[in-house]
Amino acid sequence: MRSNKENTLAWLMSGLFGVLAGVFLTFGYQLETYDQINIFDKNAMLVMLALMIIVTVDTRYVWRNYDLTDKGAKLFGIVKLPKKGQEREFSKRDFLINYASLVVLCIPVFLAEFPGFFVYDAQDELNEVLTRSFSTHHPLLHVLLLGGTIALFHKISGSWNFGIAAYIVLQMLVISAIFAYVVTYLQKKGIAKRARILWLLFYGLFPTIVMYTLCSCKDGLFTGFLLLLTAFLVQLVEDPEGFLKSKVKVCLFVLSAVLMPLFRHNGFYAYLVFVPFALIYFRKKLKPLLVSVLVLPVILYLVISGILSGIFSSEVTHHQEMLTVPIMQLSRVYAYDGESLSDEDKAVIESYIHKENLDKYTPRVSDMVKVNFDNELYERDSAAFWKVWLKLFKEHPLAYLNAWMLTSYGYYYPPAVINVYKGNTVYTFTYDESSYFGYEVEPPGERISLIPAIDKLYRYISIGSFQQDAILLRLFFNPGLYLFIYMYVFAYRLSKKRFCQILPFLPMVLTFCTVLLGPTYLIRYVLYLWTCIPLLTVTGGAVKSTAAV
């Protein structure tokens, strides 16, 4: 009887993965090719159905052999998953070796891109510090850290490049330390020497990761602290009592859970939703200390962010940041079905979203549409906005779906080309073939490449024709491939009721859900899909689901 239930659950989970894969691949192709979903295309729907069936059956077949990894078999012939109990003592020497290796691996790219990638609102954040005019549009902690460091070292040296480089190096040291800790933890769990080298090279050489290790934007540090939080959650789930006995781990857990949302606001909402799931999971061994450890980061975040906002008299966050999806939905209906709208509906839409912005509607990014959203009017009368939104939703549901998915499908369609800013002119170039990564150095910085060959490679990957030239290789540079890996692994673990192997990744999953409601699809919003991958190899069967419950 138990075997039949397990088999049924396995088919359900493989079916879930198959359905999601079929939907993402089919709809993603339509959105990439035609800028819209066409559910009335019979051939496309048949292809989607075929994909669902094939992926479901193949997945179930593979899972029948997947349990071999629990016995130490190699994953992909390279990564040896550790056996239960196959651990060794934590080594500070190993950590230092890993740390030094990662720093050394980053140095050539740093020299090639000197003073580092100063991009993605970097100039705005620096100006906030220089002019003492702050807002909560950018996380205040990051604004103060970035702007303060650059201003300090500029004052000392008289060089903006030196100030930018100082901040980039500081960030590189912090992120590399987190990567080194994760690799050292993998060693503790018993990974083979070749796997250790693989993950060091992955963290230290893979361009997508290195770009953000050496980039001034907040996403690098946010990703680092989310990775650290995930690593601590893995340990907490495996051995709650042992974890709570370590004051160092408890303090670092709380620190990472507080810093993560301080560098990106959506991290707070993800962690806030995570806490109830964690409390339910640990319900049979719930102790006051554990409750405090899980809840304290929420309190500290609210206190710290409140203090920062109070001290620096920052403005309230603009509503358009939270209304990206409905703004794009109204804009798409206005742009493509405007003739069907009444004069009254048009007037209401134009009162919130200026006509000149509505005329700049582009399917894949909301920046040009939402920039002048009338926040004061929304404060006074949000009901009118939602009334017209609901009315047009009933009349144009497919347009609403297209508007939302066009700003997010790049996250779950592996072959998607990341070029949402095509045609946009920034400080030193105009996006044309790709907007995979910002690449440039915004003023007052200036790029001085000391290794032009590496600089040429990163430019090619970032804004060149790499995505068109390397059709297969580009899959490893796109978030869709990694999302499919997570979906596959999590579905398998659900089929085995190994909830303990999913819970540590829940903050990451919830954070990913928030970006689906964001302004566009960019790598920087989901870098954690790359960095958390190694942790899957130490939660893949070494621990039973009853470990903490």
Report on this structure.
- The protein is mainly alpha-helical and 549 residues long.
- Among the domains are: 2-71; 92-314 and 502-538, no CATH class.
- The chain has 25 helices and 2 strands.
- The protein has helices at residues 2-34, 42-66, 92-112, 122-131, 140-157, 160-188, 193-205, 207-213, 219-238, 240-245, 247-263, 265-281, 288-311, 324-336, 343-352, 355-358, 367-370, 375-380, 382-395, 397-406, 452-463, 466-469, 479-495, 506-515, 528-531; strands at residues 74-75, 79-80.
- Helix 1 crosses helix 2 (42-66) and helix 3 packs parallel to helix 7 (193-205).
- The longest helix has 33 residues, at 2-34.
| Largest beta sheet: strand ordering | 1-2
- Please, what is the oligomeric state? single chain
Q: Low-confidence segments, ≥5 residues, pLDDT <50?
A: 75-79, 540-549
- Mean pLDDT, to the nearest integer, reads 91
Q: Could you say which overall geometry the principal axes of the C-alpha atoms support?
A: globular
**Which structural class do you get from the secondary structure elements?**
mainly alpha
Helical fraction equals 55-70%
Spatial gap, N to C terminus = 24 Å
Radius of gyration, CA atoms, in whole angstroms: 24 Å
Total number of helical segments?
A: 25
What's the helix-strand series?
HHEEHHHHHHHHHHHHHHHHHHHHHHH
Number of strands: 2
